[in-house]
Amino acid sequence: MRLLTMFRITLTLGLLSLLVTFWGCTKPDETKTASSKNEPAQSAPATPAKTGAANTPVPTSSAPSVAAIATADGERAGTHVDITELKRSSDNTLTLKFVMVNDSDNRLGFGYDFGDKANEIKDFASIGGVNLVDGAGKKKYFVVRDTENNCVCSRDLKDMPPRGRANLWAKFPAPPDDVQKISIVIPHFGPIDDAPISR
């Protein structure tokens, strides 16, 4: 009889313990549910930016490219140039900026290909052979050169890999103010006529 009574007491205490544990675990959820009924719905937090190694944000898009004011295909299939700027500077020069694109399956070497033949040694791996032509004024403008006869332009260029591109530039003597358009001649690319000059 005593054993039975002790068994009942132990069983009752065990059940009470389980009920208290169960009630204690469910109470916060019930409170949260009850309080959420009285509160307005909150919007979900914004999705955080994707991250890569070392928690560095992963860019979702590349920087916008500058719009081309003119373009020309190259002699080699899959190559072209996009002229992005032809602008007068305060030092009485004209700055030409362009992107050379190699969408072919082969490397595009600079070497002596884009230099001025009169300055072949100095112009190795440069674009010193680019020039501007004012057809109406019958004048040709060559790249500006420093005291050592180096072109004031992109120099020491490495070969461009397949599917590669390079941002290039060159400075020229500025034509008269009344010249608002000019032709651009880049070796191994078609001539670009009537490129607008900006200020």
Summarize the structure.
The protein is α+β, with helices and mostly antiparallel strands and 199 residues long.
Keywords:
199 residues, alpha+beta, Immunoglobulin-like, four-stranded antiparallel sheet, 1 helix, 8 strands, globular
Explain this structure:
With 199 residues, this protein is of the alpha+beta class. It has a domain at 75-196: Immunoglobulin-like (Sandwich). It contains one helix and eight strands, in the order αββββββββ. Strands 1-2-3-6 form a four-stranded antiparallel sheet, with no helix packed on it. Strands 5-4-7-8 form a four-stranded antiparallel sheet, with no helix packed on it. The radius of gyration is 36 Å and the shape is globular.
Run of helices and strands: HEEEEEEEE
Percent helix: 10-25%
Strand segment count: 8
Question: The CATH topology of the domain at 75-196, please?
Answer: Immunoglobulin-like
Which structural class do the helices and strands define? Answer: alpha+beta
Largest sheet entry? 4 strands, antiparallel
Mean pLDDT: 79
Query: So what's the oligomer here?
Result: single chain
Number of helices: 1
Radius of gyration, taken over Cα atoms and rounded to an integer in Å: 36 Å
Q: What is the highest CATH level, the class of the domain at 75-196?
A: Mainly Beta
Distance, first to last CA: 109 Å
The CATH architecture term of the domain at 75-196 is Sandwich
The global form is globular
Fold blueprint:
Layout: H1 2-38, E1 70-73, E2 79-88, E3 93-102, E4 131-134, E5 139-142, E6 164-173, E7 181-185, E8 192-196
Antiparallel strand pairs: 1-2, 2-3, 3-6, 4-5, 4-7, 7-8
